[in-house]
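Form 7-S
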Amino acid sequence: MAGNGLRKRNAPSAPGSKGTAKEAASDEASAKPKGPPSFNGTTYLVLVLLSAFAVLVYRDPSIVTEPLAEFIGTEPQDLGPRVVDFSTDIPKRDAVVEAFKHAWLSYERDAMGDDEYHPISHKGTNLTEAGGIGYTVVDSIDTMLIMGLQDEYVRARDWIANKMSFERDAEFNTFETTIRVLGGLLSAYALTEDPMFLEKSIDLADRIMPAFETPSGLPLSHINLAQRKGYATPDNKGLVSTAEVSTLQLEFRYLSYLTENDVYWDAAEKVMQTIKGSSLNTGLASIFMNPEDGRFVMSAIRLGSRGDSFYEYLLKQFIQTNHTEPVYQQMYDFAMNGVQQHLVKKSQLARLTYTSELIPERDPTGKISWRLVPKQDHLICFFGGSLMLGAVTTGAIETPVSIPPNAKQLTPQGIRDWKTGVELIETCMRTHETATGLSPEIVHFRIPSDGLMGSSMPNDWYIKGARPGAPAPYDARYILRPETVESLFIAYRLTGDERYRKYGWQIFESIEKHCKIETGGYASIINVDQVPVEYEDKMETFLMSETLKYLYLLFEDDTVLPLSKYVFNTEAHPLPIIQTTRRANF
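Output:
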């Protein structure tokens, strides 16, 4: 059915539906000797109470789901030590490897070296007219190493060593180039200690560094790699994205550690010092900042695009230096208190935990108010796993905690964040209840003021703008995003709960069924609620960098890239946790 915002539910059997003939005959025979049923006062009272309870549960399922969730592990329980089996699920892990090969080999055949791949037209494109810098190759190479794909790795390494060039007289996004290319090169070096990767990392980082040359130290959004000059983007009126400027730190700090060159670390740390000095009293961050004065600009507050990885990297900077820089713990805890107080909500009827957005509005008198919008990007689905990781890190009374954690090992904030993280993962899985089993780019949740009471809209979430017979809105697409499986991977490593592997396999099967192009590669789909699907001819680089990597690690045993030794950048490139005497000085 064409996307109309409605999703199929598993309907219960209709009253009076027939079982087998044998069962029916048996029921009829057993019923004959009996007279009409008789009810005494107690029975009648029980029936009335049960009916009333059923109505309450229908109107507020959390009456049952929340106590049940506590019983089955939403909250860490005082259950004592548990033996967790992290054995590899070999068939599922190997199926993910085959999917990666299906994606990579078609890209290598049709577009080797190009930044992006279009699997239906069998061609590649670059991000600039001056040429590309191998986004897809570098973004994918550590996945090959992790999966043991030696032949593919050798060919990719050869291209990087001999054909990659950063001498491109064009503007590249500072953030994307850092997390995908610099992050990919550094991860490859960490896994191989091949000096070629470190040399390429230094070359690229030195070309990016001029972007930080602003009065505030906040890097400009674009960098001309050949000119070694930063540029503001006119799209944002010279402003910079909060998430983009605060999601370069893992990469530049690790490079500084490897080279013993403080210039990289100093630039990355200066950004965090500026942000801390400008922080809002809620701990939250508006999605835009001014690179001239380093202050936040009135703009939306959200955990989705332009906000997401700011919160992610607060925690990960604390982890990267092995919990030795308390300023990042303080900033993270302050931010999480703000998120919990202002952004975490429950949907109207289904009582799903979700995160909302705050939109600033100015009335005719100039007074500013903030409107809460029940909108959640798929990007936010990283946050469930991040909250759980934070709960056993900054929210732990002492580390390491057990797997799964015991409630006595966590602070009240740790318990709160663990519970919210688990619930957010469940919500994200609910958004996969579509015709394809894939989650849309953006969903909205039901609230009392949405004017939809009594309508045919589902009682939990919907795709805004979806109409029967109309073109699908942008919100309805799935572009091979990794955020839900990222959270599933982290949750599984922290709990050993097999339900997370089950969820991951469901998503993988949906990708295989609806996104796979038989001639090679995978494509985005226009509408998750339409089958057969309509494709968009693009395979995002993060399919091989993140989505398939996290799925592989979900089914691999926990000795591969343990969370106690590695921290993943926001593009899923694993970097080692480092021991350094360097400490934040703000």
